[in-house]
Specification:
CATH class of the largest domain: Alpha Beta
Strand content: 25-35%
CATH topology of the largest domain: Nuclear Transport Factor 2, Chain: A
Structural class: alpha+beta
Helix content: 40-55%
Largest sheet: 4 strands, antiparallel
Number of strands: 4
Strand order of the largest sheet: 1-2-3-4
Distance between the termini: 24 Å
Amino acid sequence: MSPVMAKDASQAALAAKAKITKAEAEKIALAQVKNGTVKESDLEEEDGTLVWCVDITTRDSKEITEVLVDAQTGKVVSQKKETPGDQQKGKKDGEKEDEDDDDEEEDEDEEDDD
């Protein structure tokens, strides 16, 4: 399975658990950021809590406001500003984590061959 298909499948599995839709989470998050526009939103598990991670941009700033909305209750769990550099670092960290996951799967496959 390709990484994109795996991500889509995991998003679908998480979405099945969520009571709050993506559109509802984006509306809740936008209410937190004046004159904001949704750049991206994903469903994630953060510290055991299912949340919508909504990245919001504004015209007057290069910073991105990340708003986490609880996917069960619709409450804002956290809100923080990220610079474009923070965003790039986060993407690189995520790529590294994905690579590490692949290594673990390969190790498991090797064990099965014994």
